[in-house]
Design goal:
The structure is a single chain. The chain is mainly β. Helices cover about 10% and strands about 35% of the residues. It is globular, with a radius of gyration of 16 Å.
Amino acid sequence: MKFANTAAGLCLLLAVAGCAGPSVAVTPNENLTVEQRAETPSASGAAAFGTQRVWASGLSVVVSAPRSLAPSETSIPKAERTAVFTITVYNGSKASYRPSQLSVRATAYGSPAPELVDSVQGLNGLAAAVAEVPPGRDTQIQLAFAVDEPPAQMQLTIQPGGQGQDAPTVFEGQA
């Protein structure tokens, strides 16, 4: 029965992705897996943190609401505070996906927010995401960005195929 539910959810996801433009907003439901979430369009064009976006290729991304963290002394760059996001990438395509293709740009109040690497706290950055994701599987990547004192209005712009390859999707909210 679980296989049938998963298969039905995956078919729905692929149907939505095939009918959609560059991406479709999906509001997460904590009781469902990534591939079982249903479509709900975003009115502003930007997705709130916690919303799933699906591209025509079948790839989908969910950016968690950020958590605030004090960086360690060894973080690069030095910062007063970081906003840490968990990015879940679900590969609904027919080919393996390399997370190193993912392009993530962050802004805080419209200014670029640099990615922060803090290996002491397990924040090794996008460059550390090297394992391929087979079709039908997902992976989680934790990324941190240097920000000022809270609250910060942030936007993350994501392109799963890299800059210039896929239509960008913007996630936004308070960090």
